[in-house]
Design a protein that fits this description.
136 residues; 2 helices
């Protein structure tokens, strides 16, 4: 089952709030204050979090929580050509490296803290690969 991941940038002028994650029936929505994420960042992070959701799933309701993993985000002014976000996604940690114009330092720190707090209730799924044969 593929989870639906949404990233919402709230309207300019709203009182400041810390980014947070809302659970949905079939996924989740990441909420950001206008000042913490750009329009481009909204689209890029939706893609990043959607890819990540392919590698993680909620633990069974009756399963005990797992251990909390470290989830961090480093912001860089300059990235390799064409790269907006790079992700090192492991069973024991997740590290994002993101273009600094996509997300604020405060937004990056806050959203990864929320992800880390939620990590005991998720588990890594086994990697799956498919290779297509090409006609020769």
């Amino acid at each position: 089952m593929l989870l639906t991941i949404e990233v919402k940038r709230h309207a300019q002028g709203e009182a400041y709030f810390d980014p947070w994650i809302e659970d949905l029936e079939d996924g989740c929505r990441f909420h950001f204050h206008w000042d913490d994420i750009s329009d481009e960042g909204t689209e890029v992070l939706r893609e990043v979090f959607t890819e990540q959701a392919k590698r993680w799933r909620p633990r069974a309701v009756d399963a005990p929580p797992g251990r909390r993993i470290s989830i961090t985000m480093e912001r860089r002014a300059v990235m390799s050509y064409g790269v907006a976000v790079a992700v090192d996604d492991r069973a024991d940690y997740i590290h994002y490296t993101a273009r600094a114009d996509l997300i604020s330092e405060r937004g990056a720190r806050s959203i990864t803290r929320h992800q880390s707090e939620r990590s005991p209730y998720w588990e890594r799924t086994p990697a799956q690969y498919q290779v297509q044969l090409r006609a020769v």
